[in-house]
Write a structure and sequence with these properties.
Layout: H1 17-25, H2 28-45, H3 51-58, H4 73-92, H5 94-109, H6 121-124, H7 133-143, H8 160-180, H9 184-214, H10 218-242
Helix pairs in contact: 2-8, 2-10, 3-4, 4-5, 4-10, 8-9, 9-10
Length: 252
């Protein structure tokens, strides 16, 4: 159970208002942790890493604070791998930066045959083509929240970085609705759960295997492990959040 000490479930509608508030206060850290995780993941796969992003990850061992690492060995191993490359960046600077840039380009962009394409349709479409039915389904999920990628119609909507960016933005919306005690929170959580089940978790496992097999850097092998481990645990977290009473997520 992911929420054990983080969430106190309100099990009875007759509990005092004070008791319910204590339970609600423990949910906020989980909602914030999900925002933090999706922010790191989207920035890791949407584009080549910047100097600023690498410094952010290495500063005060930020990557070591990645959520759910205590519950999931795959996340722990991924953190260890990422950390090993980030520590090199302190001593060799531009060398590791260039290595990560080339590894990202070779794996996810080209110009050679991609070893780990970062588009959903490359895994779920029989012809492995982009801008297919899978792309349209992802776009429809985006449009429900008026989310349009920056390079709409020039880059396939089902790129991993864009799908993670979508989950990040919905996670921010969840926290905002929670703070305002708005009932739309339930719909957003349900849509996030559905998006994980129908999209990300259907192809990220194979993507992660490709990255681990073909990457030349510990950084991307590690980030792909963190990604895979987190998505699986986030599905459990969403199921538990949707099952909590007393926060406007369930009505009698």
């Amino acid at each position: 159970m992911l929420t054990n000490d983080r969430i106190e479930t309100v099990e009875h509608p007759n509990l005092s208002h004070e008791t319910q508030l204590r339970g609600l206060a423990k949910i906020r850290p989980l909602l914030e942790a999900r925002i933090f995780a999706y922010d790191i993941l989207r920035r890791s796969f949407l584009e080549e890493p910047s100097h600023e992003f690498l410094k952010l990850l290495s500063k005060d061992n930020l990557i070591g604070s990645f959520p759910f690492s205590e519950e999931e060995g795959e996340i722990q191993e991924g953190i260890r791998q990422v950390h090993s490359d980030l520590m090199q960046s302190e001593s060799v600077g531009e060398t590791i930066y260039n290595r990560l840039h080339w590894d990202y380009t070779r794996l996810f962009i080209g110009p050679y045959e991609l070893q780990a394409p970062a588009w959903e349709s490359a895994y779920l479409n029989k012809e492995r083509l982009l801008f297919q039915e899978e792309t349209l389904k992802v776009r429809l999920a985006y449009l429900k929240y008026a989310f349009l990628p920056k390079h709409f119609q020039h880059e396939a909507d089902d790129h991993l970085g864009l799908e993670l960016d979508f989950m990040y933005k919905l996670s921010v919306m969840v926290l905002e609705k929670y703070e305002k005690n708005e009932h739309e929170l339930l719909d957003i959580l349900e849509n996030q759960k559905r998006f994980l089940q129908e999209h990300l978790l259907r192809w990220v496992p194979e993507f992660q295997q490709n990255v681990c097999q073909h990457s030349d850097t510990e950084f991307y092998r590690g980030m792909s492990r963190i990604l895979h481990g987190f998505l699986r645990l986030d599905l459990e977290a969403l199921a538990e959040l949707l099952d909590i009473e007393g926060i406007g997520l369930k009505t009698n």
